[in-house]
Specification:
The chain has 134 residues and is α+β, with helices and mostly antiparallel strands. It has three helices and eight strands. A hairpin with a 2-residue loop joins strand 3 and strand 4 (22-24). The longest helix is centred in the middle third of the chain and has 11 residues, at 70-80.
Length: 134
């Protein structure tokens, strides 16, 4: 959001991500990811990176009856997000954990971390070449 020449980073403090030297808004990544016609809901959160700062994990709820592949998701992410905001990890879940006011409880997802069902897009060979970074 820009007002009078100032740039404001808007997100919940605990949901803010720092990846590859860049601030990443989980809300903006979720909005971009949810534009995919097969994705009903998304929750994006940080997971510890083996290198530095954070890596990004997207927990996705699919539209009933739909299926996606890592290739399909990566191509969609690459076209809609800057390279540093493309999630490294993706997990397809049946539902997102919610509290009594229906807010997604991202702390539950963060605490769960990486599971056996998590796709590591980087290990699967997906990445944005330097020449395509924007």
């Amino acid at each position: 959001m820009v007002e009078a020449g100032s740039l404001f980073f808007v997100d919940r403090k605990k949901d803010a991500l720092r990846r590859r030297g860049e601030n990443v808004s989980s809300i903006e990544v979720e909005q971009a990811v949810c534009a995919h016609p097969k994705i009903a809901e998304a929750a994006v959160h940080a997971v510890p990176s083996p290198m530095t700062e954070d890596d990004i994990k997207a927990c996705l709820v699919l539209v009933p009856g739909e299926q996606v592949t890592p290739e399909e998701l990566f191509a969609f992410f690459r076209d809609r997000l800057p390279y540093f905001a493309v999630p490294r990890y993706v997990e397809i879940v049946d539902q997102l954990p919610r509290n009594a006011t229906m807010r997604v409880m991202k702390h539950v997802l963060r605490d769960r971390g990486l599971t056996d069902q998590t796709w590591d897009l980087e290990k699967l060979g997906f990445g944005v070449p330097r020449s395509d970074r924007r």
